Amino acid sequence: MLAFLTDYTLQNVMIGAALIGVISGVLGCFAVLRRQSLLGDTLSHAALPGVCLGFLIVGTRSMESLMAGALVSGLMATLLLIALTRHTRLKMDAALAIILSLGFALGVVLLTYIQNRGGAAQAGLDSFLFGQAAATARADLYPMAIIVAFALALVVIFWKPLKLMTFDPEYAAVAGLPVRLLELFLTGMIALAVVVGLQMVGVVLMTAMVIAPGAAARQWCASLLGMLILAAVFGAVAGITGGVISALAPGLSTGPVVVLIASAIALFSLLFAPQRGLIPTYWRRRHRLGHTSSDRVLLTVYELAREHGDWSYRVEQGAIDAYYGMLTEPLLLALAQRGLLASAQHMPDEGPHWQLTQDGCEYAASRSAQRRRDWRLNRASGSP
Amino acid sequence: MLVDPIIAILLTGALVGISGALLGSFLVLRGNSMLADAISHSILFGIAAAWLMTGQTSGPLQIIGAALSGVLAVFLIELLTRTRRLRDDAAIGLVFPALFSAGVVLINVFARDVHLDEHTVLLGEIGFVWLDSVMFAGIEWPRAMLAMTLMLAIDGVFVLAFYKALKLATFDPDSARILGLMPGLIFYAHLSLLSGTAVAAFDAVGVVLFIAFVVVPPAAAYLVTRRLVSMIALAMLIAAVSAPIGYWAAVWLDVSIGGMMALATGGFLLLAYIWRRCRDGHQRRINGVQAPPSSSA
Lengths: 384, 297
Hints:
The complex is a heterodimer of chains A (384) and B (297).
Chain A: H1 2-6, H2 8-33, H3 37-45, H4 47-58, H5 63-87, H6 92-116, H7 138-157, H8 159-167, H9 169-174, H10 179-201, H11 206-220, H12 224-248, H13 254-272, H14 278-290, H15 294-308, E1 315-316, H16 317-324, H17 329-337, E2 341-344, E3 353-356, H18 358-381
Antiparallel strand pairs in A: 1-3, 2-3
Helix pairs in contact in A: 2-3, 2-7, 2-10, 2-11, 2-12, 3-6, 3-10, 3-11, 4-5, 4-6, 5-6, 5-10, 7-10, 10-11, 11-12, 11-13, 12-13, 15-17, 15-18
Chain B: H1 5-30, H2 33-54, H3 60-82, H4 88-110, H5 118-123, E1 133-136, E2 139-142, H6 143-161, H7 163-171, H8 173-178, H9 183-224, H10 228-253, H11 257-287
Helix pairs in contact in B: 1-6, 1-7, 1-9, 1-10, 2-3, 2-4, 2-9, 3-4, 3-9, 6-9, 7-9, 9-10, 9-11, 10-11
């Protein structure tokens, strides 16, 4: 185990993977919350021509030049995206898909251009498609670490405006923040995350590293700070595990393994997170359903009808659901089966509504009177 | 004659472009362009799984099987969005990388040293389509071209037969629902065909470049015209013309043919963009007021 931890290559892989996980987790949270998850997809595909150009200009496969190239093409992609959505009637989704596919096409063309001109140095360029963790050298880690530290420092410095931009861009604009500049800034940060991940995860799959940790963390946390920290941890765990697995099993590309682990974390969070998880939510609903009597629901409909002075008043199912904090449809159906409620249509495009039947009205009235009697009796006798 | 290298390459490229543009027009108009991205990445899982089960990557069964994984992706995305734990963009971004990764890992583990490797799947090799030929209807066809021809025929029949329903489902899904045209079903049928077309096209242009043929020509046409029929026709024309332009540019520069064909569609988008900007500027001068840009839809 100790030998495992001190192995030089594995050390590099683990440090690099942790760096990628942290930066993409943290910056991805903003993208996920701002509904711009697919920006990472576009920027990572569009980084490929930058990588190739960086290689063409410098002539060797040095990490700094490739990162610089990727960053420049990421910024170009951002500017094109803005030009397309602001000056034409194309929507964001079309602009994203256009830049993604054309950027990647340009990258492929440049890649074949480099390959067909030979040279042993080009051999490693292919690995930027899917990432190759084992190819990480200690020297590659320094520029990555510098970028990560820089990006995290920016997040700390601009914490307040970023938070405001994320949750309430309208208010941010009204408050006089340079919204467009901040948007550009956030997009640039995602480009930074992509650049760091190029070496190990590759351009095709960096998108998942931007989205999965943030989406997973969102299920556990309700505060931005907690979400960022958790996303960084998730990202690092996925990166390290995947990086080590692929470094130990030759022939496995790193990117896909890392992404599968990150996706598994996201799936687990969606299913099991205590507050928002699907399974805990389901159990809570079932529990409440078992502890709510259908008569109580009937009385709610009855009281609503009485308040409105209309015994055939139509109550929206969604309103009852919201009132009880659960799906009340089974109870409503049971009441309908007993002939106490009838389903009613209010307007064609609205959800289901329910109204009292004659029987239901009488039954609810007697139940209501009985309840009131009980209540008065209890109060008079002083029992709790 | 069809197995002549240049004819095979040009026709296959044009077929990929035309069928992509035909289906892509509705996708772009509906605002779902990134589903093309999701589908074309996700089919890699289907291609790998179908290859594992049957040992073949081409053939009708394989196309259907692989296309199912594209439909699976759309289904999973909807499922995730419905839980309301994620927005639709995050759902897309979670589902397709996972399926794509699963496909790459399957290939990495099981398919070493065979012609199915992840770079071919990603980039395609349209330069070699003429090498693999089959007999069909008494003529020798390159396999990829035959698959594309049949897919284009199916796509064309579908669009012609359900044109009204497609149009209404695209522009006004609510009315389509009220009229009983089942926009949901149309949506899934459309995406299934897109998925099948992507599978047929992956041999030639790879899964990522296919996105360019689906989205870019319709987007360029959308900038130029406002009528659906002329938009589809123009998109198909752009896609068809991009194939020879891309081919000759690629041969001249000695680079990837598929990539150059995709870039050629980008050239047309640039032309459309310039044309639209000039026209808008002209319109503003005529009106003499600062009219809002025709965009911001």
